[in-house]
Specification:
397 residues, alpha+beta, Cytochrome p450, 15 helices
């Protein structure tokens, strides 16, 4: 066994170091020690921590590692995550995972995402109009990043945007590692009940959204459709919100990189890939359970043992990305795995890229004097949340 299991619980997520964009020092130390090490979690159980790029890809593409959270040995990241019922296809294996995922795959293709670009551009311009007509400074999170990503996924699903308060409450509770099990269950039940009622209403008056189409297909029960809707709502706006926020912050704190994009906006798509690599907002790890004995790296992972795949350290692996701790928008970063890897890779990866691309291009064009409104040292980051980001981002222009 490489490395020693700590006598104290390994924190997931762990505290950040001096640079808010770098993975936690505990994770970086694990990566530099060995790409596969054994750690002890909050509940006293042990699991394997996989930090290397090659090794994370191996685990996530190997179907002998199960995503089924009901399996013994599955590594839960916190007490709040263990309390979550979450029957969605995200936490199932094939063939059920493949069958349910195929029902919505067509809604998240590259072509579908690009077809939404004009509408996303219009929405971005509308939100920026509203923001710039108000007094400075503004909070980029509440003025642009959150309403944009939330409206996009609501439109796709056919969920009224008026439900935004309930959706954001649920997301905040779900992703907060400090939430009590009771709060998690209550919030989850509230949103599922709301979505089930919404789905029932679409039986009489369908629409062009994903939920309405699933109702019309008749293959799933209202509760199953509501569960799928809940998954897509939460994963469809939380990561995008905080990728937008952190990307803008990272560029503002790296003015030479921002200057390159202003000089040549055609390089924005390449910069998007580098920002996805450099920031990797899903910082808590992707859990799996071995179904048979499997060797990963130099370690034998026994059947029934849990595994945590750390996307953020994989994206800072120097063997794949030289000078990995440097933000370089000229880098070809397409080998990153910010959206996961394998059959469970994020459905919304093309849509998230379009949103980030549109926002960056628009800010570069419309706000040439965009700057932080206050010291960067005063910013508070979402270290306690499963999706990393900044709680607020005060900006001026």
């Amino acid at each position: 066994m490489t490395g020693e299991q700590s006598s104290t619980a390994f924190p997931v997520p762990a505290p950040r170091g001096a640079c808010p964009f770098d993975p936690p020092p505990r994770y970086v130390h694990a990566l530099r020690s060995a790409p596969v090490t054994r750690v002890r979690l909050w509940d006293g159980t042990s699991c394997w921590l996989v930090t290397g790029h090659k090794e994370v890809r191996e685990v996530l593409r190997d179907r002998r590692f199960s995503a089924d959270r009901t399996r013994p040995g599955f590594p839960f990241l916190s007490r709040s995550r263990a309390a979550l019922a979450d029957p969605s296809f995200l936490w199932t294996d094939d063939p059920r995972h493949a069958r349910l995922r195929r029902m919505v795959t067509a809604d998240f293709t590259y072509r579908r995402a690009e077809s939404m670009r004009p509408w996303i551009q219009e929405l971005t311009d509308t939100l920026l109009d509203r923001m710039t007509q108000q007094a400075q400074p503004a909070d980029l999170v509440t003025a642009l990043a959150l309403p944009l990503s939330l409206r996009v996924i609501c439109r796709l699903l056919g969920v009224p945007h008026d439900d935004h308060a309930l959706i954001t409450e649920h997301s905040g509770t779900l992703f907060d590692t400090r939430s009590t099990p009771e709060t998690v269950r209550e919030t989850e039940e509230k949103l599922l009940a709301h979505l089930t009622a919404l789905v029932e209403g679409k039986r009489a008056a369908g629409d062009g959204g994903i939920l309405g189409r699933l109702v019309a297909a008749g293959d799933l029960s209202p509760a199953e459709i509501a569960s799928m809707g809940r998954l897509l709502l939460v994963t469809g706006h939380e990561p995008s919100t905080h990728m937008i926020t952190l990307s803008v912050l990272a560029l503002l704190l790296h003015p030479e990189q921002l200057g390159r994009l202003r000089a040549d906006p055609s390089t924005v798509p390449q910069a998007v890939e580098e920002l996805l690599r450099y920031l990797t907002v899903l910082h808590g790890g992707v859990p799996r359970t071995a179904t048979v004995d499997i060797v990963v790296g130099e370690e034998l992972i026994a059947a029934g043992e849990g595994v945590l795949c750390m996307l953020n350290t994989a994206n800072r692996d120097e063997t794949v990305f030289p000078a990995a701790d440097t933000l370089d928008t000229d880098r070809d970063a397409r080998a990153h795995i910010a959206f996961g890897y394998g059959t469970h890779a994020c459905l919304g990866r093309y849509l998230a890229r379009v949103e980030l691309d549109v926002v960056l291009r628009t800010l570069l064009h419309r706000l040439p004097r965009l700057r932080l409104a206050g010291p960067a040292e005063d910013l508070r980051f979402r270290e306690e949340m499963a999706v990393y980001g900044a709680h607020r981002l005060p900006i001026a222009w």
